[in-house]
Amino acid sequence: MSLTTKQRQYLKGLGHALNPIQQIGKEGLNERQLASISKALEDHELIKINILENADITKNDFSKMILESLSAETVQTIGRKVLLYKKSKEKSKIVLP
Hints:
This protein is α+β, with helices and mostly antiparallel strands. It contains three helices and four strands, in the order αβαβαββ.
């Protein structure tokens, strides 16, 4: 699923007030963190992740791994924060324009 420009703008507005729910540190991205991110995306649909300075992974690599592993869309990256979206299968809350 690819987001349109209008949908990205809408999601950016919703994600502005969100606090990061998880941090990726020097251990990088492991299976436990992927499972946690997957569950958070199913519960909330739109989440923010913080990538710490000492992380072995860049925000671009992180976005690629999330897209491949979880089929989630990267809405926005600002600094070391990444905003992710994935439509919930069971309880969709966000209605995209």
